[in-house]
Amino acid sequence: MTTYSLLRNPNLVVAPNFESIPFPIVSMGTPTAIVCDSNVDRLHPSLRQTLTETCDCVFFETVPDHEPKAASIQDLAFRAMRANPKAVVSVGGGSTIDTGKGLCAIGSKDYILPKCFQSPGRFENAMTHVVVVTTSGPGAEASPAMVYGFDSEARTAVVDDRLIPKTVVVLPPLLASLPRFNTACCVLDGIVHSFESLVSGLNRHFAHPLAIAALRVFLEGLPKVLEKPGDLDLREQLAVASILSSTGLRATGAGAAHTLGATLALMIDCPHGALVAACLLTLLRKDVECSDACVRLNAIARDLGFDRFAEILNLLDKIFQKHVLSGLQVSCRSPYDAPSFPNGDSVDPRLSRHLTRIDHERARLTLETVLSVFGL
Hints:
Number of helices: 16
Strand content: 5-15%
CATH topology of the largest domain: Dehydroquinate synthase-like, alpha domain
Radius of gyration: 20 Å
CATH superfamily of the largest domain: Dehydroquinate synthase-like - alpha domain
Structural class: alpha/beta
CATH class of the largest domain: Mainly Alpha
Order of helices and strands: EEHEHHEHEHHEEEEHHHHHEHHHEHH
Number of strands: 11
Distance between the termini: 47 Å
Oligomer: single chain
Strand order of the largest sheet: 1-2-9-6-5-3-4
């Protein structure tokens, strides 16, 4: 087992097998609430038994979704507090990790979302959070952000450093069974994190080296792991690179691709990684046509070992077409039965709140292009 310290949080533990998982969990104190979705039992049937035999834990299953709902997190908190847990372990991808963050933040059935985030004193006593990632890097495992939705309102993102998990556990054998579609979506999301850090002017000296290091691993490792999904070394490298990219994004903040992806998430039901990847590719195609932007992108390409940025764009486009778009099922969310982004300033307020950082005309063209890619 290898442990790395990344800034203040999280601590990264790379474990060789299932039996090694409980080590960082037991040391936190018991009892422990395990938050996982139903896919974990289907893909990794021995995981529950291993944890149950080693830890004083109670399992709570979540419904797989692209973002957790506030009501679901609240209901989970009410049930979990009966066991009086001292820690929360989230086993899953981004939505499960965000659910675990919400459970830690609530900390008591006397608090509800989002009021718990307005009570700093209570939040300081939040439970310790450990994450066991089951995807190739959703980014939530190293992020101070928590995204959740309401049934009748737009999704909400809360950003607070106290939401960063204490420990992240990476088990390459756990990742080896991840389907190619999920692998591509998750790693492309990490690539978006890295590119958004690179083009940001904030905290360049800190964020840019992390983004370059992560992109080198992503661009070399993603094509290989899609050919050899069982390669444990590649799985470990990609998971660690995801944490690096997310750490860099913490210093710069999300960019246009995530802003547009959040807007699209209100209109269509689609995995987050596929949304932001489609937005990034659309934006980059336009930037390559601009001489000034192309010069900067070619400089980034040379730092990554490519002659021209067009080579990177072609590589990502092929992966997106073959491994994401071919297996993607997209549906419209009510009331957007025929999603569109109107001309001018007549924008649904639930959409416009996400578009304060990007020119509306460029946003409209990008969103319309992405929707056409998805066949909507």
